[in-house]
Amino acid sequence: xxxxxYISTAIAYTSGKPHIGNTYEIVLADSIARYKRLxxxxxxxxxxxxxxxxxxxxxxREAGITPKEFVDNVAGEIKSIWDIMNTSYxxxxxxxxxxxxxxxxxxxxKMYDQGDIYLGEYxxxxxxxxxxxxxxxxxxxxxxxxxxxxxELKSEAAYFFKLSKYQDRLIEYIETHPEFIQxxxxxxxxxxxFLKPGxxxxxxxxxxxxxxxxxxxDAKHVVYVWLDALTNYITNIGYDPxxxxxxxxxxxxxxxxxxxKDIIRFHTIYWPCFLxxxxxxxxxxxxxxxxxxxxxxxxxxSRGNVIYADDLVHEFGVxxxxxxxxxxxxxxxxxxxxxxxxxERINGDLVNILGNLVNRTIxxxxxxxxxxLENKKVVEDVDMDLISMINTLEENVESRMNKLEIGSAxxxxxxxxxxxxxxxxxxxxxxxxxxxxxxxxxxxxxxxLIEAIRVCAIFIKPFLPETSDKILSQINTSDKxxxxxxxxxxxxxxxxxxFQRIDVNND
Length: 507
Hints:
This protein is of the alpha/beta class and 507 residues long.
């Protein structure tokens, strides 16, 4: 039996087309899902769209169409971009799916019947874009602390969830499960800023708009968007409050919820309390990833600094864009997007280090051995350093990936690629080719290089899947082992350019 691994992204809010910063999350999740599959896990990777709420209703009205028409259009656009980025999700969920809506109603009723939801009145400061109520003390300069926009005083009848009931239990859980919230700074923020000051009961229904899942026993109310949205992680894998399926028992709890740092509060306070109410285990880990921002700050349409993934892919190619966002955003701090740095990475890392190594090696094998290589085992000391690096790559990448240090995992692979380029300079195949007595040594050198390329191509697949396939096709191998293999016989295909150099002057 393969070990299971369930990873999810936050579901994208269908208020508009996702920019490259939004797209980073799906690519990050995809790289983790692909890596786990590479390592033999039975992976379930879920993403999708969050489609209810007042903001959607207002945007649909402005567009002169129904909310369902509006979300159908945007959800289609989001799914298209996820597909353009070559992401390998197993399920794309929508909160307007009929089965999800019915299960949300059942979940709401179960919580109500057991006394965790009660009817009251809400008066508070509300931010429509964020679908969030705030207290006066939580505002920053009188504005929403999440998005900086104006808030308005609203009062309406509402159902409330007893968040306060689960406060102490949640604090104890977080403190006894240090891996639950990552990075560490996010955990400290949740405990000190929200949990220890005391949780207020949470408004979980609205009556001032209609675009939401109706509370089936009180038709004036629709379910508050966060209760609706968060439950997608269980409604789509077979959860039912009455009787859960074998599928649910297999996949839950999730191994990783991958989300933006701006919604960490919803996933590490509201969601765990909802799960406690349903008597379900909590996800094993919630990772609040940093943002990809522009050099002049956070992307926003009002600033005119928004960049879209499909535009970048059209110009530079999908693996190039994947490489940039995965490599340039640190584990716990924001990454910056600039075209200059993107081009520098293409020319430096992808063309010079990776592309040239593959092209030079295959071309030399064709020139000197008609593309046929086997290991003649004429070994020198310089070989052992390269082979040692190849054989420790699996352990090094695994260590980084276990800590979700994706950029550093890529660096481990590129260290072997750099060492391989240096190995060419050290062994000088072109000089060996001039001496017939050195022919077996030359073949050994090229064999070692092809093995380095093969192992690196395997490990690069989670990050650059198309490039990995191209390399493995060029070296014409089905060997997927993670270590240096002494006994392969290679019959190489033609060398092809993996990445085109970009002329900065003509850009």
